């Protein structure tokens, strides 16, 4: 049996009178890539926030590698990382400076080499002295991805990793994620509205609605179980169901 | 606490200042203008006031010290605001940084920012107005330390507000020191205030610091009880501000605001 990396037990998050996440339970094994699907406001970001220790659960536990996030936040974050189109890197720092700052923050060994390696991998070498705020959205996305990979995380959380990117850059970014996922023991959780992306990258998907996981499994299994043509069709059926 | 994480946060702000001439200029410009303005006011009072006529530069010395406090506090706030403005806030809180490391890094970086601004201004005061802070003798170290701790304390309170209430709290960041200045008795003795306000003012370390400055420069007497009172009050307020910061951080985690703080 595969080793469990992420273990979520009876997780609830209440904001005033709104229950954003309801009794969430799931396990993700080491090396799995899981898609987290659901309409806007269904609790995906809150779930990711709790996985990262940014949001404190009202009740329940987030157990990462056997340790509780609440009591081991700093240690666990050392081997995790995250990207989202809603957060940015300092705009006035160059790509190289940003990667060096975050590399040091994560205590990366041989940082100079790691920065060069990531810039080469993500085709950023020619822009390394350019300020991050002066880059195109595709280039910024690649810098964010480089920052997310700087500590060679065991657990990578991705919120809409290709949002607002053109198909060419999106495909390129998916290739990088695919390549990272193929490495041994890398666990990835992707929240996305792009069903092709989810089908291409994820081993399994979890479908959220109104703060709950209402179904989960392999894409093909879910499609056939619900009698739909593809994952997008499945998504629409679930979202529109009363 | 890990030094490399504190250094990383310092480096983030060092790169920011190094790569931006307007930011560097801004750090030096305002203290210099302040010192020139107060230098001329000080010169005028020295020539036309009975209280000040034996002690050249008492107002200018107070102005320099107040500016040191102002820069310390504003620098601390600015470091935090920069993260909000650049929407980098969440990246910091998903990094393996402890709250104590954030406080330490901001405190040290704010000191460097403050010194970049205030040292040229202090150096200008001597040749232009014949005033040197060194006239305060060895007590100067304790007075600067006291002002710096108070600056950090105010910074921590403001930053706690930013964590708790988000960018809407920004205006308080700019006005916090102006609010305390009248009670701090920076340019006038405590006895000027009405009796009831003196009681309130005595709760601030500023009063003891600036009373001590006047005691040294006007009467040539070092009153260590003033320095001790200032340091003791500072310690109490600083510990309180650290507690408030931790509480604000926990409250932000409860409310889920760490994930989307931005402009």
Using brief descriptors, characterize the structure shown:
heterodimer; A: 242 residues; alpha/beta; Rossmann fold; 2 domains; six-stranded mixed sheet; four-stranded antiparallel sheet; 9 helices; B: 263 residues; mainly alpha; 76% helix
Report on the architecture of this protein.
The complex is a heterodimer of chains A (242) and B (263). Chain A is an alpha/beta fold and 242 residues long. Chain A contains nine helices and ten strands. Chain A has helices at residues 44-51, 73-77, 95-105, 111-121, 137-149, 167-181, 195-201, 219-225, 231-240; strands at residues 4-15, 18-29, 33-37, 59-64, 67-68, 80-83, 155-159, 187-191, 204-209, 212-217. In chain A, the strands form two sheets. Chain A has a six-stranded mixed β-sheet, sandwiched between helices. In chain A, a hairpin with a 2-residue loop joins strand 4 (59-64) and strand 5 (67-68). Chain B is mainly alpha-helical and 263 residues long. Chain B has one domain. Chain B starts with a helix and ends in an 8-residue tail after the last helix.
Secondary structure topology:
The complex is a heterodimer of chains A (242) and B (263).
Chain A: E1 4-15, E2 18-29, E3 33-37, H1 44-51, E4 59-64, E5 67-68, H2 73-77, E6 80-83, H3 95-105, H4 111-121, H5 137-149, E7 155-159, H6 167-181, E8 187-191, H7 195-201, E9 204-209, E10 212-217, H8 219-225, H9 231-240
Parallel strand pairs in A: 3-8, 3-9, 6-7, 7-8
Antiparallel strand pairs in A: 1-2, 1-4, 4-5, 9-10
Helix pairs in contact in A: 3-4
Chain B: H1 3-18, H2 21-48, H3 58-85, H4 89-94, H5 99-129, H6 139-165, H7 170-180, H8 195-201, H9 205-219, H10 224-255
